[in-house]
Amino acid sequence: MNFAKLIVGVLTSDRESLDIVLKQLSERFGKADMVSQWRSFTHTDYYADEMGSNLYRCFVSFEKLVMPSKAVEFKGWTSEIEDEHRMDGRRTVNLDPGYLDSNKVVLVTGKHGGHKIALAPGVWADLLLWYNKGWQALPWAFPDFRDGGWFDTFIGMRKIFKDRIKGEPS
């Protein structure tokens, strides 16, 4: 079986809410094994109308390995958590679930794009990084992936993943 490491990107202007969101994510996905530093999300104003300005993003990975085929379920669960944090109908947190393995980082999204792979109605897989002696951003990756700022985070998560699967049948 091909397992992967579940990851979730957390985008918000309220960094104090991370503890609450992490508790909710852990109830669904199990214990977190790595939480990245926050990075300013300044490469685009795509979310400004809904979530305001001064946004930050971090990534969380979880101990439990998952089957990538369950990605649609992960997206559904994170959408439920987003809905619980809405204020006046607007999201205060955007959660991007996905997975990484030894070779790639994939996020699961509700936004269609020419390079994205349909998983279910309204859900697409977005391959953003691939590993070749280091992480390489694909041309369509988000700007904060292309600038390399997440590479160290995903190197750390990849190491945890590889240590975890060492000796397990694939």
Written description of the protein model:
The termini are close together. It is globular and about 50 Å long. Strands 1, 2, 3, 4, 5, 6, 7, 8 and 9 form a nine-stranded antiparallel β-sheet that branches. The chain has one domain (4-165). The longest helix has 15 residues, at 151-165. The chain has 170 residues and is of the alpha+beta class. It has five helices and nine strands; from the N terminus they run E-H-E-E-H-E-H-E-E-E-E-E-H-H.
**Which secondary-structure class do the elements indicate?**
alpha+beta
Give the strand content: 25-35%
Mean pLDDT over the residues? 93
Largest sheet, if any? 9 strands, antiparallel
Question: How many strand elements?
Answer: 9
Q: What's the Cα radius of gyration?
A: 15 Å
Following the backbone from N to C, one meets helices and strands in this order, namely EHEEHEHEEEEEHH
Q: Identify low-pLDDT runs.
A: none
Overview features:
170 residues, alpha+beta, nine-stranded antiparallel beta sheet, globular
What would a concise description of this structure say?
With 170 residues, this protein is an alpha+beta fold. It has one domain. It is globular, with a radius of gyration of 15 Å.
Detail the topology: elements first, then pairings:
Layout: E1 4-12, H1 18-29, E2 32-35, E3 39-40, H2 48-51, E4 56-66, H3 71-84, E5 93-100, E6 104-109, E7 117-120, E8 123-131, E9 135-137, H4 143-146, H5 151-165
Antiparallel strand pairs: 1-4, 1-5, 2-4, 3-4, 5-6, 6-8, 7-8, 8-9
